[in-house]
Amino acid sequence: MLEVKNLHAKIGEKEILKGIDLVINDGETHAIMGPNGSGKSTLSAVLVGNPLYEVTEGEAWFNGKNLLEMKPEDRAHEGLFLSFQYPVEIPGVSMTNFMKAAINEKRKYQGLEPMNAAEFLKLQREKRKIVELDSKLANRSVNEGFSGGEKKRNEIFQMAMLEPKLSILDETDSGLDVDAMRIVAEGVNKLQTPETSCIVITHYDRLLEMIRPQYVHVLYKGRIVKTGGPELAVQIQEHGYDWIKEEIGEE
Amino acid sequence: MSSEQQYIELYEQARQVIFDHAPEAMNAVRDEAFEDFRRQGFPSKKVERYKYTDMQKLFAPDYGVNLSRLQIPVDPYEAFRCDVPNLSTSLYFVVNDMFYKGEEELRSKELKNKELRSNFHPSLPEGVIVGSLRDYPELISKYYAHLAKTSEDTVTALNTMLAQDGMLVYVPKNVKVDRAIQVINILKATPSNAQRQVPDLMVNRRVLIILEEGAEIKMLFCDHAADDRHFLTTQIIEAYVGNNASLDLYCLEETHHKNVRVSNVYIDQGRDSRVNHNVITLHNGTTRNKLDLTFSGEGAECQCFGCVIADKQQHVDNNTLITHKVPHCTSNELYKYVLDDKAVGAFAGRVLVEHGAQKTSSQMTNQNLTATKEARMYTQPMLEIYADDVKCAHGSTVGQLNDAALFYMRQRGISLNEAKLLLQNAFINEVIDHMQLEPLRDRLHYLVEKRFRGELNKCDGCKLCK
Predict the structure, then answer these.
(1) What residue in B sits closest to A100 (Cα-Cα)?
(2) pLDDT digits 0-9 by tens, B177-236
(3) Is residue B373 part of a domain?
(4) CA distance B25 to B134
(5) ipTM here
(6) Does A154 touch chain B (CB under 8 A)?
(7) Window 46-85 of A, Cβ < 8 Å to B
(8) How many domains does chain B have?
(9) What pLDDT, in 10s, does the model give residues B413-437?
(10) Which domains does chain A have, with CATH numbers?
(11) Following DSSP, what letter does each residue of B319-343 receive, concatenated?
């Protein structure tokens, strides 16, 4: 699915990723944890092609295609999805128009006809149920006036609509209450298939108890310094990161 | 030679021709207008209200003026499909600056288009007049050129000294005209049988609107250029809005890059009257729109909306002055511009709250998107307040599309172009959505989207403009 080799990236003059190696196979769920400022969000931003970041070295391959040479929209069409840590408000663009544009551009990329209105509404209705999203939100502007929980559920709704192959959830649990987190986690689980994969970026193991990853990586100072199973998340929750810093020779 | 000299000479040489081909009531103020024009000359860019548009330059070229009122035939059937097709309006044409009566011409065309046949000059409620200024001398002498003071504006003076015809709209007391009046202003320099070289054309358009107490009307003016000449249009609209009367005014410009339009709109509002003033520029060359609106009676309200989309070398300057003379009036202005390529936009709005105009409520907003580094926007919101119990606000922004929003959309698979389009549309729709005339609003959504996609070179669906 995804193969990242020795990836370096900077924002402005500041180097943030200093050689990331990561392999994700079909059907796998990986968690990425790490202290603040270690580069987790940067990694997700670079993978989806945020123009604020510049890749200085390394490679990223997505289902055999060179990810770094593709425009952000084409990465999306190929099946890459990012659930934003801070979903952007877009005043004046309705959720429905936004989703319709997204779906139809993807279909165009795949050489398909645009979806007709009835089909689209039906799809939208079905997918909304997955995250228990209020249908009133469809007529509102994208994310405008949504509560924190609604914004995050709206991200998962979009994920359901677009059916990506690889989803990156960037701190989708932050700012959510227990119930909202359960809804989001259940939504993500429902969307998982043996052909799709998921990267979960989080600070807490609570989400990971619900979305069971096979692998947990610790990102620190722009490198993956430790990889383990789900038990690693529990250890971090109990002991913090100091013991890992010690292991790699820092205090 | 300064730009005004050719107009002074024209007037001195052709004064008799002008008088011979114009109604007496319009001639009555002509010499005075000429003196005012000669005295003032064209304003330099140092004059505050003309800072952003160079009048000297606009009026310098040599244009032909149709002083002996030669008829230029036009086929309204071709023009009709312009603009707002689904809007059921009462339809009128002004060809250059002449009110188009042409009933016989229309009949002889054996119009297949039922819609046009039933819309063209339909019967109006009793006492309502929509016609040529030439036919109503009493109303002209009572109202003409009173609001549009020739002593205070050169262009107004020039228009008044040269205008020979125009349009009169009169609505008697308590009469409501439900169906919107649509006026298609057609610019055309070429007579149909023209063998000779046709000159570029200057036209001096004039509109007088009189609403008696409690009268209501909606007016939509659509500007089109029917051939590819250079046009210079001066336009004066004077509107008297009586007590408790209501005027909706829409001015939609869809011309071309060789077109210069200088429009001065004067509105006087009586007690408890309501005015919606909307000005939309979709295609143009150089446009300067001035609005002078005065509250003379308490409790009146005006809403002013402006929508500008400009690219290439287009220039659009909106200049407004709203004078609160009396207490308890409300004014609201929202102007939005999207400027691409090397387009230049200007908005200068001034709200003047005079002594004693207490409880005034006034809001002025101008928001602008510049899509390129070469596009320029000048914005100047001004408040001048001489009363102490008022609520006034003004705000202005110039910016670019939100990068975070663009990227968010691209991540969802929406191409950069499409994302820009969605955002530009969203930006401009905010002002269009305020416009009251629903079919026009729907049409504008459509036209604006096509405009942004670059599919709309001039207006759409009209043989005339091709």
Answers:
(1) B414
(2) 999 998 988 888 876 555 566 778 999 999 999 999 999 999 999 988 878 889 999 999
(3) yes
(4) 8
(5) 0.95
(6) no
(7) 48-51, 71-73, 75-77, 81-82, 84
(8) 1
(9) 999 999 999 999 999 999 999 998 8
(10) 2-247 (3.40.50.300)
(11) EEEEEE-SSS-EEEEEEEEEE-TT-
